[in-house]
Amino acid sequence: MDLNLDRVIDNLNSLRAHLNTGTGILAVVKSNAYGHGLTPLVQTLAPHVQYFGVANLTEALAIRDLGIALPILIFGHLGPHEVARALEWDLTVSVSDLAYGGWVQEEASRIGVNAKVHVKIDTGMGRFGFPAADAVADILALSRMSRLKLEGLYTHFSQAELANDTITEDQIQQFDFCHRLLRKEGLVFEWVHASNSAGIIQYPHAQFNMVRPGLALYGCHTVPYLRDKISLKPVMSLKARWVLIKTMKRGQAIGYGRSHILSRDTNIGILPVGYGHGYPFALSDRAKVLYRGRTYPVVGRVSMDYIAVDLGPENAVQVGDRVTLIGSEGGARLLAEDLAALAGTIPYELLTGLNPSIERVCRDKIITRPAATPDAIRALSNPAL
Ligand SMILES: Cc1ncc(COP(=O)(O)O)c(C=O)c1O
Prior knowledge:
By secondary structure, the chain is an alpha/beta fold. The protein is built from twelve helices and 22 strands. The strands form five sheets. Strands 2, 3, 4, 5, 6, 7, 8, 9 and 10 form a nine-stranded parallel sheet that branches. A five-stranded antiparallel sheet has the order 12-15-18-17-16, with no helix packed on it. It has a four-stranded antiparallel sheet with strand order 1-11-19-20. Strand 5 (92-95), helix 6 (98-111) and strand 6 (115-122) form a beta-alpha-beta unit. The two termini are 31 Å apart. It binds pyridoxal-5'-phosphate (PLP). Pyridoxal-5'-phosphate binds at residues 28, 53, 75, 156, 196-198, 212-216, 222.
């Protein structure tokens, strides 16, 4: 996988052009930075954003392990043994109900720290969050828990990719209403946030004082029609090299289930990428790859480790040459969002499914390697090594 990390900054700048001056940015880097690789993405983003957002404690600690002291909000609920660790590492926890808040309060006083908290309001997502109708009384009760420092207030949109959507407008209004009432009661939050990538682009009046882009940072559009509204550049390209080229005869079958029978004599190229790497099985007999600026069809089923490509009868292909599975080459491009649509899924699933063990390469240098090197495997079987 090639990463063009300059593009992360370009995408941040494109997003900033949609923001009011001074609006903070919480960069969402959960699920291995949307499959791109947590380390390079976090290191690139850290100097340019106010906050990171992750799904769980493991992801937050991985950022702290890199020596990054920036505030990190954990969106998800923490397990019984996780709250204390989160607080020890100065991580910000989301609180969505009073019982959980009480528990964070207990853990904080047990270990003698204050807990930084962002309070979540459910305005229509139907998952975490104080239900908006009763949120104010409950959040005031939360504010009386002495160890909780209520630093942030937030909500999450369920369909901000839709333009002029009454549901999203209603979510914004409910959130704004709660926020105003809480202010009247004397509760002032340092950070107030609602918008994800699509929200930033479609609902400029919902910026409050921080936004939470994820997908857009990586240069991917939530839905195709947002392409006209913001220019984003894909940060990642997925590449592989031909490992085998063979001439095959008309009538021969390719791969598991013999789903593809060749209709002519042709050359078949094999690439060492399969669903084990996150290349969806649903792309069997559907996707195309780019080689020397031309597209070629994937034929037969995607298997765990390989795909087969029909190169045509005439093709002169070199084993070892690089091929693009996601990305652009010679003016042609295969976007992650288009490939996801072809696979009947969303770009989020396609990107986060890309296996962390794929090498990440930046400017021709390997920046993260597969964990299982021969030395690591030998050390596992012989801990004395
Ligand atoms: C709470 C929260 N905020 C923001 C985001 C970012 O959303 P997007 O990737 O659509 O920008 C996510 C992603 O799922 C999220 O869970």
